[in-house]
Design brief:
By secondary structure, the chain is mainly beta. It has 3 helices and 19 strands. The chain has a single domain, classed as Jelly Rolls, CATH 2.60.120.
């Protein structure tokens, strides 16, 4: 994609993020490195961390300047990354305005990965073991999930979330990692009329600044989060200054509570941009753009 004549999103411009530092519209062969070796000069890489197999051109097809993703196995939405673990090359983001134009239909059958446009800390992404980095920040710019709507029918809805993965270095009896999450809050999109998604094209975005993240759907502010090293994080609906209730505060059965300093690890990290979905829940991506100062 040309870095010229691309309109600056209003939220990015207001934050002073007017420099387009990453842009991919899936028109050229340099969009995706399918070699599995991590060759420099590509926007996205098909080699995956955490033991995932290298994605193939059949799973990530380029059709008429559109990426059509249908990975055979893509648990936790670990799909194409903007950085290659194998080649130690690619793009990472430290603050910025990340946006992508995406569409998806409802899933057909069972699935083990939802349509997602997200980012995770590079240190964790390239590590050989999930306990190498005990604290890791994750920014979900978009996750499409399923739930029953007001009519009792299964429908798609959109969430945008911050995660703080804290791993104390021990394992559970079943061999899984003992892990604590810093995401115990009521998702803001449950409070408004735009929670439910159709299968049309939409632009999903997040503005990440020091101690603050705001999520946007088609240029409209949806919700935001503030965090710091010495306070509990707070979450807000649209531009309402009243903090939203945390999950554990209204669900007494919740086992874990958000802790002071949750999410502040984000300010220490370079984040790898990831596009992911599942074979039974494919998605299409028109373009991805990252803006910064």
């Amino acid at each position: 994609m040309s870095f010229k004549n691309v309109p600056i999103p209003a939220a990015a411009e207001a934050a002073g993020m007017t420099k387009l530092v990453f842009a991919e519209d899936f028109e050229t062969e340099t969009a995706i490195d399918f070699s599995g070796e991590g060759k420099p000069g590509y926007s996205f890489y098909a080699d995956r961390p955490y033991g995932g197999s290298t994605l193939t051109p059949e799973e990530c097809q380029l059709r008429d300047s559109t990426l059509y993703m249908k990975p055979i196995k893509c648990g936790a939405a670990i799909g194409l990354g903007s950085y290659s673990k194998k080649g130690q090359t690619g793009f990472t983001m430290h603050y910025g305005y990340a946006e992508a134009r995406i569409r998806a239909d409802k899933p057909v059958g069972e699935y083990d990965g939802v349509p997602a446009f997200w980012a995770i800390g590079k240190r964790d992404f390239v590590s050989n073991h999930p306990l190498d980095w005990k604290d890791c920040g994750e920014l979900d710019i978009l996750e499409i999930n399923m739930a029953k709507n007001e009519q009792g029918e299964e429908d798609m809805f959109y969430t945008g979330t911050l995660h703080h993965h804290h791993r104390p270095g021990t394992f559970r009896e079943d061999g899984r990692i003992l892990q604590k999450q810093g995401t115990n809050f009521i998702n803001a999109l449950g409070y408004n009329e735009t929670r439910w998604l159709d299968n049309e094209w939409h632009t999903y975005a997040a503005l990440w600044e020091p101690g603050h993240v705001s999520w946007y759907l088609d240029g409209k502010l949806m919700h935001s989060a503030r965090y710091s090293a010495d306070a509990l994080p707070e979450y807000y609906y649209r531009d309402d200054p009243t903090p939203l209730p945390r999950f554990e505060d209204i669900n007494p059965w919740a086992k874990e509570r958000t802790w002071v300093g949750a999410h502040s690890v984000m300010d220490e990290e370079e984040e790898v941009i990831i596009l992911g979905c599942n074979f039974n829940w494919p998605m299409e991506v028109d373009w991805v753009r990252i803006w910064n100062k």
